[in-house]
Design goal:
The chain is 50% helix and 17% strand. The chain contains three helices and three strands. A three-stranded antiparallel beta sheet has the order 1-2-3, with helices on one face. The longest helix has 44 residues. Keywords: Membrane, Transmembrane, Transmembrane helix. InterPro entries: TadE-like_dom.
Length: 148
């Protein structure tokens, strides 16, 4: 009978209290969850940037088909890129470099290359915690001269 009183007294003192276990579990799991959420966010931003860059390059290459000379093709591609950047939210106008010209391997193919410095996306704060993409994103799209 005495041991029952001692056990009840111990329960009141806190020997079997489990109120802090949730806080300890949260302290162990929270950093992993935050790192996971940060990784998902950073990957989404990088994937969106790569997709937008590819889309802008494809639009510029399609627009360059209408040009007759290489100079006219280059100006059409550059104006298309500028127009796309002015309406988009991810890249600022002037933040990408555009290179246009004939393909060195085949003169019948015209190539548009767009280069973007990914450090301006603002995700470098996570570089110590997460694997990052290269600092320079590049997208190249080739079209046949004349559109066929």
């Amino acid at each position: 009978m005495a041991w029952r009183r001692l056990l009840r007294r111990g329960a009141r003192i806190g020997w079997t209290c489990r109120r802090g276990s949730s806080a300890v579990e949260f302290a162990l799991v929270a950093p992993v969850l935050l790192c996971l959420f940060a990784g998902i966010t950073v990957f989404g931003i990088c994937l969106g940037a790569a997709h937008n860059l590819r889309q802008i390059a494809a639009e510029a290459a399609r627009a360059s088909v209408a040009g007759v000379t290489d100079t006219e093709r280059a100006s059409l591609a550059q104006s298309t890129v500028d127009r796309s950047l002015a309406s988009g939210a991810m890249f600022r106008p002037g933040s990408v470099a555009v290179q246009v010209g004939p393909d060195p391997n085949d003169a019948a193919i015209y190539t548009v290359t767009i280069t973007f410095d990914a450090t301006s996306l603002g995700i470098n704060a996570f570089s110590r915690l997460l694997p990052m993409l290269p600092h320079v994103l590049r997208s190249t799209v080739s079209v046949r001269k004349g559109g066929l």
